[in-house]
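Milestone 3.1: sequence recovery, worked example.
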């Protein structure tokens, strides 16, 4: 297996080793045996595709990722699982994590929650090249204070925050877990934010925010598309994990991944503890005059997509999903078939995902190893990786059939 050094760093600036992992070619032992013996041979679990470790982090685990056209990279380090004292939003710069947009906003302080970043989770880039993030407002072991949960827009050209919309009750619940977001600039005077609230409890929903007025509402809170599937089971690192909110061995997961079509006409979303993909016309979702009954009728079941955390789309309209059962990233083609872009046992708990014209970027936060899901023992092992997968390798990846509906 070939390896190539790329770049690595610790959250405090310590340079770490980085590696390039490439799939090896595996002979099929079954072809070397008589047919009667072939079915008894382990064909192995060979990796597929090629990936690079862009950076390795010590300290808190990464979540959201955005890469600008000029290759500036931004990473979120939420505090809801680990109340750390490092940057919650950082830029990878000269081999170090630099608090972004500055230390006053990104590091812990006594400033009011609305005037600093508490726990940056998901993030995205809009069609104007601006950075948007969702601050879930949650520190481990603490309730969400007033002003902490918010949608924040940053202009990378000036490194200045130009928009802050604080999420308030009844949109924000005590158990809310504002997870990820996408920005639709085709609806509303300044655009509309669509946010997934996966919930730290059992109250997930989608949240819609008019960025010009700050008007906001929860929708589809009682719809199956935003909820975890009862009795859902996933196999992660060989362990069968069953969703049970009363006895968690698996993360509580309502609406989680979200992405937009290239023309911003369609929003796609999925619950973490579900294998289904759903969509809605943005024209419908952004319309505050439509009630939940109308929205529910507009929800489209797009079929199975595997167990996914992050979602992303490219400019061709192809949809990318992480898959934490298979340590993989899949791509849903325009005809509904799926392609394995990369698969490797080192791609553990793929989380935040971002697609540009050349690469798929993904953070690996090892969330399944958190103490909450392992009898109180934190099983995570530093460092945490940020990887990228070259899209040129997609042609050699393995294709599968269309999703079932």
């Amino acid at each position: 297996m070939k390896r190539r050094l790329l770049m690595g760093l610790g959250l405090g600036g310590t340079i770490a080793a980085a590696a390039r992992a490439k799939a090896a070619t595996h002979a099929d032992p079954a072809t070397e045996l008589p047919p009667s013996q072939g079915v008894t041979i382990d064909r192995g679990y060979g990796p597929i595709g090629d990936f690079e470790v862009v950076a390795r982090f010590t300290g808190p685990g990464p979540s959201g990722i955005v890469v600008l056209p000029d290759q500036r990279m931004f990473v979120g380090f939420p505090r809801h699982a680990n109340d750390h004292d490092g940057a919650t939003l950082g830029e990878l710069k000269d081999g170090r994590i630099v608090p972004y947009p500055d230390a006053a906003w990104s590091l812990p302080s006594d400033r009011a929650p609305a005037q600093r970043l508490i726990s940056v989770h998901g993030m995205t880039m809009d069609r104007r090249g601006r950075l948007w993030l969702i601050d879930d407002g949650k520190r481990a072991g603490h309730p969400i204070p007033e002003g902490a949960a918010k949608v924040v827009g940053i202009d990378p050209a000036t490194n200045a925050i130009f928009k802050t919309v604080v999420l308030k009750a009844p949109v924000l619940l005590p158990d809310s877990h504002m997870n990820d977001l996408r920005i639709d600039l085709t609806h509303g005077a300044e655009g509309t934010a669509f946010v997934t609230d996966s919930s730290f409890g059992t109250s997930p929903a989608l949240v819609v925010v008019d960025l010009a007025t700050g008007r906001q509402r929860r929708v589809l809170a009682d719809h199956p598309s935003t909820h975890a599937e009862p009795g859902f089971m996933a196999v992660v690192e060989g362990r069968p994990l069953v969703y049970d909110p009363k006895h968690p061995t698996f993360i509580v997961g309502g609406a989680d991944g979200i992405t937009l079509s290239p023309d911003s006409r369609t929003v796609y979303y999925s619950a973490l503890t579900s294998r289904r993909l759903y969509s809605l016309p943005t024209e419908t979702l952004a319309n505050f005059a439509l009630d939940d009954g109308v929205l529910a009728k507009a929800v489209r079941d797009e079929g199975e997509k595997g167990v996914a955390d992050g979602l992303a789309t490219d400019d061709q309209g192809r949809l990318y999903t992480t898959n934490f059962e298979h340590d993989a990233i899949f791509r849903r083609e325009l005809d509904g078939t799926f392609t394995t872009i990369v698969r490797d046992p080192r791609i553990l708990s793929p989380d935040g995902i971002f697609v540009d014209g050349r690469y798929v970027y993904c953070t690996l936060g090892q969330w399944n190893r958190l103490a909450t899901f392992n009898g109180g023992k934190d099983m995570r092992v530093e460092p945490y990786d940020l990887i990228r997968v070259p899209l040129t390798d997609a042609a050699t990846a393995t294709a599968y059939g269309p999703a079932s509906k």
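The radius of gyration is 21 Å. Residues 292-298 form the longest helix (7 residues).
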